[in-house]
Amino acid sequence: MTVPLAVTEYGDGAPGLSPVAILHGLFGSGRNWASIAQVLGANRRVLALDLRNHGASPWAATMSYGEMAEDVRALMHARGFRRYALIGHSMGGKAAMIAALRYGQEIERLIVIDIAPVAYRPHHLALVQAMRGLDLVGITRRSEADARLRAAVPDPGERGFLLQNLVFEDGRARWRINLDVIERSMAELVGFPAFPEGTVYQRPALFMAGARSDYIRREHEPAIRRLFPKAEIARIPQAGHWLHSEQPQAFLARVEPFLDRAAK
């Protein structure tokens, strides 16, 4: 069963340019992409989604990439879009890849950010456990949660990113992401499902890696090209895993021309 995803829309679109849906990474939400979406929205319709169990979207008991891909497709169809482009970062990049491999006839362009169609170590599991282990009783400000989380998550940037998911309602703190299901689904989230031999996405794809990140390594390139034979692989200097926020101008300089080629 699909989940009706929360979405923020930017731009009115332009003749000949397909809409673009942006899929965030684990622990993120569509609002992490607001500045990029605003720039892209100057020329096209852009939809920044909250994936299931994240942001303002409903919680669900399961969280496979197939389900996430179908959620995205259902939202785009509900908006009347039968042809569109996808941008996906990290977990959202895997969901976008699955959507492209399953529904390639309707996805005109694919942009995958700092993730490959391979399995990774479950290093995010420790972050989930740290968040679940945080005693929220009596916390009234995010700074208090930050102090309590410091021992388990020493990096202040990483801690700040996680704490974007802490919300306060009626004077009480709660996580707005479904930590139980994310933890239960972690083995699936770090993996990548197998496809029958010969399954490919035949349209253009752009894989973007941060030069300081090891999420897309040279040894991953054969797996990328096997499933996405028209893939371009670009590395952004001076950037890590969150290259779109670390180097937004360099990011946009590659993304905008790639998307514009869809109109030609």
Helix content: 25-40%
* Tally of DSSP helical segments: 11
* Quaternary structure of the protein: single chain
Protein structure class: alpha/beta
| Known CATH architecture of the largest domain | 3-Layer(aba) Sandwich
Largest sheet: 7 strands, mixed
Corresponding CATH superfamily of the largest domain: Alpha/Beta hydrolase fold, catalytic domain
Describe the fold and architecture.
- With 264 residues, the chain is an alpha/beta fold.
- It folds into two domains: 188 residues, Alpha/Beta hydrolase fold, catalytic domain (Rossmann fold); 60 residues, no CATH class.
- The chain is 35% helix and 18% strand.
- It has eleven helices and nine strands.
- A seven-stranded mixed sheet has the order 1-3-2-4-5-8-9, with helices on both faces. Strands 6-7 form a two-stranded antiparallel sheet.
- Strand 6 and strand 7 form a beta hairpin.
- The radius of gyration is 18 Å and the shape is globular.
Short description:
With 264 residues, the chain is an alpha/beta fold.
Question: Any key phrases for this structure?
Answer:
seven-stranded mixed beta sheet; two-stranded antiparallel sheet; Rossmann fold; 11 helices; 264 residues
Furnish the topology, listing elements before pairings:
Layout: E1 6-10, E2 20-23, H1 34-40, E3 46-50, H2 65-78, E4 84-89, H3 91-102, E5 107-113, H4 125-133, H5 142-149, H6 156-163, E6 166-169, E7 172-175, H7 179-184, H8 186-189, E8 205-210, H9 221-227, E9 231-236, H10 243-246, H11 248-260
Parallel strand pairs: 2-3, 2-4, 4-5, 5-8, 8-9
Antiparallel strand pairs: 1-3, 6-7
Helix pairs in contact: 2-3
